[in-house]
Design goal:
mainly alpha; disordered N terminus
Amino acid sequence: MTSAESAAAVPPSQPGNRRFRLVCVLLLIVVVAFAVRAGASLYWQTRFADANGSSPPFYFGDSVTYWRLAEAVARGKPYQFDEWQVFRMPGYPLLLSPVILLFPESQDATRVAAARIENALIGSLLAAAVGLVALQVFRRPRVAILAALFAAFEPCTVISSVWILSETPFCLTMIAQIASFLALIQTQKIRKLLIYAVLFTLLSAVAVYFRPSWLLFALFLTICYTAFAICFRVKPLSPKEFSPLFRGIVLFAVFVPLFVLCMSPWWIRNYRATGRFVPTTLQFGPSLYDGLNPDATGASDMRFVETFRRLEREHPSTDLRGTYEYRLNERIKHASMDWLRQNPQKAMELAVVKFFRLWNVFPNEPAFSQPLVRLILFLTNTPLFIGAACGFWKARRRFRAESFIFVIPAVYLTLLHMIFVSSLRYRLPATLCLMILAAFFFGTMRESGDHSADQAK
């Protein structure tokens, strides 16, 4: 048999086989990512979690509030933390509540370990979700696998899966939200356009239930994409395709009533609790003052809250209606805005500091600044950010709109945290999207080289 006959005897790789192999690789990445996160969770639980001496043992104060609210949900008690009724969005406490129910109260350490494992599982699924979004846009299995690997083993994504915080489940929801928006701008059928608009709206509401700062992101994303498409003339490929402006109008028409419907249970509950309309929580004032006050450094330091609490108790704000909790939030917010009006230059300087804290390739906090940790973070994040920038530039022609969408979370979070406090963990949602651009760049480098060699011949 000749070599030509031998080659003809080998059946070409079928699309079904390639999809099966890709699914197997992504599942393997999920399994390994879960093993890494589970091991890191147990290590954190035994070595660092009891650093502040709380019971149950948590490193972050925010974790204590989420846990206490989850206990209230699990036991059917009023949803409040101490005297604060509108303190946290209910998404993450609801997710934690089954773990609370699964173990008796005497097994606090076991319950916390189980909650960490729950987060580890979500973080592992997040890696596959990032890979699938990369495949959705770029249609290259190699790019999808690289994106999943980045999301599975980048240090910040691993450590965030260890903490009892809302970052990881929020990020999974956010990636699904981005995927639904990408599907919305790609479809050419009105029925699917409406379905994806509904899905995008539902995921946007779920994301806000996990993280209140995401309230304006859907509107920001829609406006940015529509303006970008109009300014850079991202036209339909044929007269039968929908224009970006038409897609934006349809999305807006679906989004507004459905989003209001999804958020209305929380809004009604808040109105009954405070007598005022509260779209997310009554932590806006403290969060704003944390970032804009005479002693602000860009890092979080909430010790001022107790001073304002005492002032509000001793000298109530007579010009405000509502509960003590509502008046306190307004008082702190007004104090922050007063300082901002009197110190605009200092606020601008702080914004620059917060920008570099958000996008630092080294840890900001002294507790995480060991030489080995600094080296690992530098060696992983630096090529990731460079690759994302190169990937954005490389995708600017064929995938112009999609690559722009992957950058919008970074813009939104940067603008947000140049006002509020800034930290590496707040950039995680944006980093996940940048991983997809970096995977596109690194995953197609060989293709570019092969193309150049063919042209030289």
